[in-house]
Specification:
With about 475 residues, the chain is an alpha/beta fold. It has 3 domains: about 50 residues, no CATH class; about 260 residues, Type I PLP-dependent aspartate aminotransferase-like (Major domain) (Aspartate Aminotransferase, domain 2, 3-Layer(aba) Sandwich), CATH 3.40.640; about 100 residues, Alpha-Beta Complex (Aspartate Aminotransferase, domain 1). About 40% of the residues lie in helices and about 15% in strands. It has 12 helices and 13 strands. Strand 2, helix 6 and strand 3 form a beta-alpha-beta unit. It starts with 5 loop residues before the first helix and ends with a helix. Bound molecules: pyridoxal-5'-phosphate (PLP).
Length: about 475
């Protein structure tokens, strides 16, 4: 059937050519200084749209934890709310109401139900949530030290070399000494014994990661909690844990509901999670939840009245979009516990399948076979004589984006590749990927063999 828009499309197409060719087809577009005159909307759209075609395809981006697909109904709600500034609570009270509902939902998901005294906020992502959580711990520690008449000039924070860069950022931006526990070539997470060795009366908090950015593993949260409880009993030091559950916060409650990692552990006082990772919402959205309202010092809450009512805020940014908060609520209503559980189980099953298939090729060593979250890390076998960087760049030729990187200090000689399995990485796509992974690795090896033989030929010519 011929679309009735064909005529219109042709007209638009010719318009596009005329305008672009007429104006910019043979000229460069203005790039680094403000153009004096504007252009037609359609032309501006086409120019930008065409240039962005050079970006990678988000569906083939196996590097990112961040959501790249949502249902059309969610997209519609996102567009409908794009023009609402979240901070305008007086003007848009229902968005604020929805945010508070989600804080309640997340706090209950993380078992912060003792007396229902929790508190929390939405953020731009986990990075902002981590900074705000740790800032609260810094203020609380200082307050306690002041009350005890003790020095409060040298706060420190303890976390592992396996944490995300946002932890180092917090330490530097907010002037707190980072006490970083190094990982090793044998173990890519931290140890409770090491935590015990470095904490002291100036430690504002211990950071524990569930789903490290590097390998997707979990720090031993139960043991670290126990080590801090022992310390509390032995020395009277009450050091809070902040859990960075950027990825696992939307996985573990569904995949391992009996695994105690959250407010069921006594020393866990705050948790961050990214809504835009396995919360299944586009960027940028994060959540910060405190076990109790008393964890959030009143000095950190700012009341603004110039938008109408007196409104307390606890964010680093002032203005912020509303759409992703609305989109998170859409997912929660649309999927429910059952829906999230099904999606999480599906992703975990697929990730395990991928890990097994990669291992079965006999060409790779699998470092993490999606033990807790749907992340698979692997590296080529030594005898293949090919680096993860080479495989990564060859895969890019097919459109696949798979990062290759070295592990943090002390294990920096280990380079690995990581695939983050998301909802839209289906079994069929996975099989195509596996095929490409093997082909690219083999053909590269063949190419290297040819090069080596060629070199041999050059150095030992047959005459
Ligand atoms: C463990 C961990 N923490 C924090 C972050 C930062 O999260 P966001 O990108 O939501 O700011 C990431 C991002 O990948 C992460 O993996």
């Amino acid at each position: 059937m011929v679309s009735k828009n064909v005529g219109k499309d042709r007209e638009n197409e010719s318009l596009r050519h005329t305008r672009i060719m007429g104006r910019y087809g043979i000229e460069n577009i203005p790039k680094y200084s403000f153009p004096e005159n504007g252009i037609e909307p359609r032309v501006a759209y086409d120019i930008i749209h065409d240039e962005l075609n050079l970006d990678g395809n988000p569906d083939l981006n196996l590097a990112t934890f961040v959501t790249t697909w949502m249902e059309p109904e969610a997209d519609r709600l996102i567009i409908e709310n794009l023009h609402k500034n979240f901070i305008d609570h007086f003007e848009y009270p229902q968005i604020k109401e929805i945010e508070e509902r989600i804080v309640n939902i997340m706090a209950r998901l993380f078992h912060a139900t003792d007396g229902g005294d929790f508190s929390g906020t939405s953020t731009i992502g986990s990075s902002e949530a981590i900074m705000l959580g740790l800032l609260a711990h810094k203020f609380n520690w200082r307050e306690t030290r002041k009350k005890q008449g003790m020095d409060y000039g040298k706060p420190n924070i303890v976390f592992g070399g396996d944490t995300h860069i946002s932890w180092d950022k917090f330490a530097r931006y907010f002037d707190v000494e980072p006490r970083i526990i190094k990982i090793s070539e044998e173990k890519f997470t931290i140890d409770p014994e090491d935590v015990k060795k470095v904490v002291d009366e100036n430690t504002i908090a211990v950071g524990v990661v569930l789903g490290t950015t590097f390998t997707g593993e979990f720090d031993p949260i139960g043991d670290i909690n126990q080590a801090l409880l022992d310390l509390k009993r032995e020395k009277g030091l009450d050091i809070p844990i902040h859990v960075d559950a950027a990825s696992a916060g939307f996985i573990t409650p569904f995949y391992e509901p009996d695994f105690k990692w959250d407010f069921r552990l006594e020393q866990v006082k705050s948790i961050n999670v990214s809504g835009h990772k396995y919360g299944l919402v586009y960027p940028g959205l994060g959540w910060l939840i405190f076990r109790s309202q008393s964890m959030l010092p009143s000095e950190l809450k700012f009341n603004v009245n110039y938008l109408g009512d007196e409104m307390p805020t606890y964010t680093l940014n002032f203005s912020e979009g509303s759409s992703m908060i609305v989109a998170q609520y859409y997912n929660i209503l649309r999927l429910g516990m059952k829906g999230y559980r099904n999606i999480v189980m599906g992703m975990m099953e697929n990730a395990r399948y991928l890990a097994k298939k990669i291992k079965d090729t006999g060409m790779f060593e699998v470092l993490n076979d999606a033990r807790h979250i749907p992340v698979v890390t692997f590296r080529p076998s030594v005898n293949l004589n090919i680096s993860p960087f080479q495989i990564s760049s060859r895969l890019r030729e097919r459109g696949w984006i798979v990062p290759a990187y070295s592990l943090p200090e002390n294990a920096q000689n280990i380079t690995i590749m990581r695939v983050v399995v998301r909802e839209n990485f289906t079994r069929d796509m996975m099989d195509i990927f596996l095929n490409d992974l093997v082909n690219m690795t083999e053909s590269r090896k063949d190419m290297d063999d040819v090069m080596k033989n060629n070199n041999k030929k050059t150095s030992h010519p047959i005459s």
